[in-house]
Amino acid sequence: MALAPYASDPNRSRGRRHPEPAAPTRTGFQRDRDRIVHSTAFRRLVYKTQVFLNHEGDLFRTRMTHSLEVAQLGRSIARPLGLNEDLVEAVALAHDLGHTPFGHAGQDALNDCMQAHGGFEHNLQSLRVVDQLEERYPSFDGLNLCFETREGILKHCSRANAQRLEQREPGGVGRRFLDRTQPSLEAQLCNLADEIAYNAHDIDDGVRSGLITLEQLEEVPLFERFRQQTQREHPQLQGRRLLYESIRRMLSAQVYDVIDATQEALRASGVDSADAARVANPLVCFSPGMRNQSSQLKQFLLRNLYRHPQVVETTGRAKQVVRDLFEAYVADPAQMGGGFDARGDRERAVADYIAGMTDRFAAREHERLTGRPLLP
Predict the structure, then answer these.
(1) Region (Disordered): which ranges (predicted)?
(2) How many Cα atoms are found within 13 Å in the side-chain-facing hemisphere of 308?
(3) Residue 191: domain span
C-alpha cells in the first residue's frame, strides 16, 4: 500500500545512532520491529501486569498482551490513513518495555525511591532499554533503533530529562519536548491506540475479576450504548458473550471515529509531509463527542477499578516490595546479578535492575532478601 505524503517514509528516516548497512529485504522500521520482538525486555512483558498482579489469574492482561492489542488497533487505524504500519507496530510493541513489575504501583514506588537521584519515568526507561540496557550486539549497547521508533517510544518526558537528553543527543528525541512540537503521526496514533486498548481490556478484566459489574457499567454511556444495541439484536445473550460483544462494538466505534476525525483534521491542517505534521497541532484524534465519552469511561475505571479497595490493598503491598528491594540493593549491590552491582551509578543501576524484573521474580527476590512473603 502506498504511503500518504504525511506518513513516515523509512527511506527518509533520520537513521540510527550507530550507522548500519540497510537490510536486503526489510525496511528500517520492519527491522526495528523484529529487534524489539527478539529482545529480552519484550519477553519479560509476559510476566509484567497491568492492573491485576501476576499471581491473581492467568487470563488477566499482561504488558505483552496489552502491547499486542495496541499494535493490532494501531495497524487497523494506520492502514486507511495511509500511515506507516510497520512504524506503528514497532512503537506499539516497544512502548511498555521500561515498565516496572506490578504496573503503575511499581512505577510510583520506584519514582519515590529515586526522587533524590533524578526520579523514574517509565517512558524514559523504555528508551533506556532500547538505547542502552539491551546487550545483544557486538558494536553497541541497546537495539540501535531508528530515530522515528525511538521518538515514538518516548511518549512523555519531563523538561529536566528532555534537557539531559538534548545535551547527550543534540536535536534528538528530547528536542520536541523543549520545542513543544509533535512526534510523527504514527507515534500520535500509538498514543491513542494505547488509550483505546487499556480502557477496553480494563473493562473486560474488571468484570472478569468481579470488581466491577455490568450493572455498574450502565452509568458509562460509551459502553452502555453498545450493550443495549447488542441485547436488542441478541436478546438471549448474557454473561461473558454479552460483555465481549459489547466491548467489540465499542472498540470498532472508537477505531472508526479516530479514522474519520483524523482524516478531517489532516484535511483542515493542509499538512503535506511528515515534517509538517510535527509542527502542526496534534492531528490523530477522537471527535469531540467520542473524546468526552472516552474521558467518562476513564473516570469510571479510576473510581471503580483502579481505586477499588482490593486493588489498592494489593498494590500497596506491591509498592512495599519495590521499596524494600531498592533499599536492600542500594545497601548491598552484590545481591544484584547481571553486572548491575559493578556500575558506579548505584541508585540508577538499582532502578534499572528492579524495572527489568517480572512480577514473580520481584516477589521471590523480596522474600529471599527480607524473609517476608508479601505477595503469593
Answers:
(1) 1-32
(2) 18
(3) 185-308
